[in-house]
Amino acid sequence: MRSPLTKRSPLTKRSPLTKRSPLTKRSPLEKRQLRAAAWFLAPALLLLLVFFFLPVIAGLLLGLTDFDIYAIGSPGNARFVGVENYARLLSNDVFWRSLGNTLFFVALGGPLSVAVSLGTAMLVDAKLTRLRPLFRTIYFAPVVTTLVSVAIIWRYLYHPRYGLLNHVLGLVGVGPIDWLGDPHWAMPAIVLLAVWKNFGYNMLIFVAGLQAVPAELYEAAAIDGAGGWRRFRHITLPGLAPTFLFVGVTTMIGYFQVFAEPYVMTQGGPLGSTRSVVLFMYEEGFRWWRIGTASATAVVLLLITLAGALLQFRLQKERA
Amino acid sequence: MRRRGPQTLLLHAALVATSLASLTPLGWMAAAAFMQPGEANALPPHLLPHDPTLQNFVALFTRLDMARAFLNSAVVTVLATVLSVLINAMAGYAFAKLPFPGRDRLFKRLASALVVPAQVGMLPLFLLLRELGLVNTYAGVLVPYLASIFGIFLVRQYALGVSDDLLDAARVDGAGELRIFAVIVLPIIRPILATLAAFTFLSAWNDFMWPLIILSDGHMATLPVALAGLVGEHVQDTELMMAGSMLTILPALAVFLVFQRFFVRGIAAGSVKG
Predict the structure, then answer these.
(1) What are the structural domain ranges in chain B?
(2) Mind listing the pLDDT tens digit for each residue in B211-225?
């Protein structure tokens, strides 16, 4: 499988040292370096092979078997069933619901996070801003917090009766909302938590992107009498296009893997309205020990991710 | 002098408002962690504890065995950080500076696997570790943290900047490859190792799904797993849960505040060069 990352990196192209004819005899120094390379690489490559690549390949294969609780004791019980797991997934309402929930989470949370990240990045980057490092640190703080902990904190903030959020909303006359208990509100509530937790990361990337936009462009536009909105529309946004692409796709891929928030806050409820694809996979695999369908679900996740990466690659190529 | 006007005022109002939104949940957690039982459910809400107490933390350590979870988290995180920095530093350096046939092709292949979500291999990895008898052990939770493609990538990009002349001079002087790595290369690439260490520390400390799967025994649980279990039984004890959350978040926040500049560098390296 050729992924976009292979072609993207311009940094892999510069090592003249490796260009040697295989027919020339190796010098003692070259032999020594070859040996050293083997020893230096062995731990990392072995670990990756045994604990990452083999499991991933095994996952692809397990998705084609009926591996279940009986097969765990004696793997001989597992049979090859072809695409039966996939067929079963496609006719499983809970799977479709989980996929739909995840798409909703990505479609609402992705753009919202990117917008908040860009907004805060522009605040931090503005010329008049004082105490820039302080604000940057404050925005970034939620990113480093433990997801399980903040999911628990927000669970209390969302409490319909005692929660801080409803109290504040009550002050401006908005009636109490049963955030996590109402199937219509539960997923938006999780989106809000995710945006709060994650926006600081992309904010940093946007700040770097903003600083790369040439200042002369803004000055020239100001001289031409372009207002704030037009400068944003015609200079900032086009200047940030590559950053948008990167941030958009990585955020999307990350959000497809949402798991801990619904696990801790709602256990997938109410009425399955917050069960995500990964939570579905976890339940299939580790609660019901249906390893076959769980693996097939993982493959679906992989395909979605690859599609996202491919999209990024295409768009990038179009721009170039 | 900068011009102060309504624009500046508006800008800083927006900065302060967003900062408040950013900090309020953490501030409320910190306040509630020191409240008396039931006080967090007072109406109207208390923003500060009226009669601060440490009893929630005492309960976590005496009644609920969170000390053990803290120890588990600390052991796993420190081991993951030290070992993974060493392992990825060696591999990243080799990919950058030690020539061997097919090196760059191998690296590209490896980097292309960056897009594969970790969840894809989790079930088989669990089954494999079960066969190896590593379920509910530190070794079991550690193995996926030890070598990271992203870590190798970070180190390689940085190590490409190490001068070949310097390395060759050391070789002429008769230094062995291991010695060159330890004495010359490691000090030069120290900044990126700090970045890698900071990232590894945080991701190991905060990780949830993998420890949840591999550490099913309560005694082996890391803090996030123990906390997620605790909220099932003690969901009514808001103050207790906030103390537990604070205990989990504080080390991560402290590491971030101390190593802040290394995070900024790592994110920039991961995104711009990515």
Answers:
(1) 66-273
(2) 999 998 889 999 999
Instruction: Among A148, A180, A250, A280, pick the best mutation site for testing chain B contact (most B Cβ within 10 A).
Output: A148
CB contact under 8 A, A45 and B147: yes
DSSP-H helix ranges across chain A: 4-8, 28-48, 54-62, 69-73, 84-90, 93-125, 132-144, 147-157, 164-171, 183-212, 215-223, 228-231, 237-239, 241-256, 260-265, 277-282, 291-319
Is the CB of B255 inside 8 Å of chain A's CB atoms? yes
Pairwise CB contact (< 8 Å): B123 & A142 = no
Q: Flag whether residue B199 sits within 8 Å of chain A, measured between CB atoms.
A: no
Looking at the domain assignment, is residue A2 inside a domain? no
Residue of chain B whose Cα is closest to the Cα of A20: B101
Domain span at residue A152 reads 92-319
**Residue A219 identity:** E
Q: What are A214-268's pLDDT values in tens digits? A: 888 888 888 888 888 888 888 898 889 888 888 988 899 999 999 999 999 999 9
A contact test, residue of B271, B272, B273 with most A CBs within 10 A: B271
A274 lies in a domain? Answer: yes
Question: pLDDT (tens digit, 9 = 90+) per residue, A173-189?
Answer: 888 899 999 999 999 99
Most A-contacting residue of B8, B104, B106, B116 (CB-CB within 10 A), to test interface? B116
Alpha-carbon gap, residue A37 to A31, rounded angstroms: 10
| Domain CATH for A266 | 1.10.3720.10
Residue A207 in domain: yes
CB A267 within 8 A of CB A250: no
Cβ atoms of A160 and A169 within 8 Å: the answer is no
Q: Which residues make beta-bridge pairs with A65?
A: A80
Using the Cβ of B8 and the Cβ atoms of chain A, whether some distance falls under 8 Å is answered with: yes
Closest CA to A161 of B241, B24, B43: B43
Task: Provide the CATH topology of domain B66-273.
Answer: MetI-like fold (1.10.3720)
- Planar angle of CA A225, A228, A232, nearest 5 degrees: 110
Q: How far is B228 from chain A (nearest CA, A)?
A: 6
Interchain CB distance below 8 Å, B202 and A8: no
* SS3 state of residue A81: coil
Closest in B44, B209, B272 to A167, CB measured: B44
Distance from CA of A169 to the nearest CA of B (A): 13
Cα–Cα distance measured from residue B92 to residue B86, given in angstroms and rounded to the nearest whole number = 10
Predicted local confidence at residue A22, as pLDDT: 54
- Tell me which residues of chain B, numbers 31 to 70, contact chain A at a CB-CB cutoff of 8 Å: 32, 40-45
Is residue A216 assigned to a domain? yes
Nearest to A112 by CA among A193, A213, A6: A193
**What is the tally of structural domains in chain A?**
1
